[in-house]
Amino acid sequence: MPIVWKENKRTETTYIDGSFVRRERPTYDGAVIGQINREVRVMSDVWAIGHFAEVWTGSEVRLVAVGDCEFGDYGTIVPDATPEALAAASQWKARREEEKREAERRERARREEERAKVVAKGKRVIVARGRKVPKGIEGVVFWLGLGKWGHRAGIKTKAGDVHWIAAANLDVVNWRDFLPSWAR
Hints:
The chain is of the alpha+beta class. It has two domains: about 5-115, no CATH class; about 120-184, Roll (SH3 type barrels). The chain contains one helix and 13 strands. It has a five-stranded antiparallel β-sheet with strand order 12-11-10-9-13, with no helix packed on it. The chain has a four-stranded antiparallel β-sheet with strand order 4-5-6-7.
């Protein structure tokens, strides 16, 4: 008997398909992995330590609230997961951790790409927007500063021509060269 609900808490009211339904709370026999306590917000300005049963549902690990230190517990958590449930939950957690690490790696790579595309001195740029300097002109940024209407850049072409332009109108041509090796 994994989650032993108190007598007055054995049923719960749930909203299903447009109406309220009273039903038995599940006990998750053979699927309770353990207990997790964490800080939860129980009212707008009141925090408490919540008590959760970590449960294998057959497809995922879920936390089931069993009470908190502010208003008391609705039941008792008794870990009783079968070896099969423990193995499946462990595999699921490992997959989730790998997915999380991969998402973090992608986010770091995205931030590095964003950083590499920032116009800076010494970077080769192309005029991509604007109306005063013809689009398509390439050059190297030799000056960056703040003008009357925002950030400005001075670029010098291979022919030696100098153009003054809003930095927002430039795109970095060789931005991949500025990425760290792990983000390429």
